[in-house]
Amino acid sequence: MPRAKRYFPVSQEINTDPQIRRLKRDCGITGFSIWLEILGRTDGRQGLWKGNEKDIKSVLAGVCETNTRGSSRVLQYLTDLGWITWQRGSEQGNREGLIVVNYREFHKHEEQKSSPSEPPLPNLPKKGAPEKRGAVDNSVDKSESGRGNSGASFLKDKSSELSESIKQLRATAAKSAMLATQVSDGLNRIAAKVYNRDPIRFHKLGNFIEAAKRKKYTDDQIADALTEFDNYDAKQMISGWYGYLERILDRRAAKANAAENERQNNESKKAPIHFDLVRLMAELKGV
Questions:
Q1: pLDDT tens per residue, range 215-256
Q2: Within 10 A of 84 (CB to CB), how many other CB atoms are there?
Q3: What is the assigned CATH class of domain 18-110?
Q4: Cα–Cα distance, 24 to 143 (Å, whole number)
Q5: pTM of the model
């Protein structure tokens, strides 16, 4: 028996959406295909794809005609963008339960859709003594007595809870942003400038810098990349800043390495000529 076809909602402007275009530029058609597969797999399941990350990336690799390294890269890219998150785990490769963050935004009909129910019955007068004309029913006032005060108290409590949650989130962000390794004053200044613009958004900046140093990038290269990023991001917020910053750093490091290689090649070309001239002059003096 052929499998029933299922459909899921997609924006009519998907091909002109700036974020989708960025996804195609950064991850190619394969990345776009993986995103559509995720939307299809989580449709009708409240945006959740159950299973561990290893199984999920294997399925994506097979369906979207890539390898597990490619699907893993796209999954991390989508995680950095904030399009997906995970139920459990934070370390790449050891997470479980993929969740599409904005699922409810495109599936509002699921919340409104429920099992058919009877229409509400009108409020009929209770049996008993006939209602007197002109009589005032104070039952509403009695039942609602004190609700205004309790409502204000409820809002005050919720406001306090929200303020406390924000404080805890900022404290966690600041702790995560602390560097375990020593950095130059220049790198420290630009890192502090970027972080202080939005501590919650850039709470992983410390992790980024430490990862870059483990890859043998110099403090000057990291500082230059952060400066370039800050000039762009301050004008227009860049979605998926972690991956964007990685690409800036890679490009700048490659350019610096190419310049250094060219300088060394030029010096090596000059060295034999200098040696020959010295030897020739010595020979002439001997003659």
A1: 888 888 899 999 999 888 888 777 778 888 888 888 888 888
A2: 22
A3: mainly alpha
A4: 59
A5: 0.40
